[in-house]
Amino acid sequence: xxxxxxxxxxxxxxxxxxxxxxxxxxxxxxxxxxxxxxxxxxxxxxxxxxxxxxxxxxxxxxxxxxxxxxxxxxxxxxxxxxxxxxxxxxxxxxxxxxxxxxxxxxxxxxxxxxxxxxxxxxxxxxxxxxxxxxxxxxxxx
Length: 141
Hints:
Radius of gyration: 17 Å
Strand order of the largest sheet: 2-3-1-4-5
Distance between the termini: 39 Å
Number of strands: 5
Order of helices and strands: HHHEHHEEEEH
């Protein structure tokens, strides 16, 4: 937090930095941010729960996001989700027990020409099978 002035306009960047480092926003971290910025805890919580990129529960070291937009859906994104769920042993929205992977579905990743699109970490991958995605993400399928 010390990298930012104690000004409420820096609430989101501070939360994003904490999310990036800790892989989630703990209650203690949100309270510390509220104190630092001198804003109500409820304001921090409201921002933390508004943005899908922020999470109150720990995320895996590698976040796998499968696009379920129209183009991706038509090109087999649902099959990819089912394949990843089976290989990882989790449902979409969950994290593996070892904390290595989180599997999420999103409405759009903005790369429809590459459909079906999956994002692993910060890398966008198009036209891949579940097995190829897991291999690229460093998981054994």
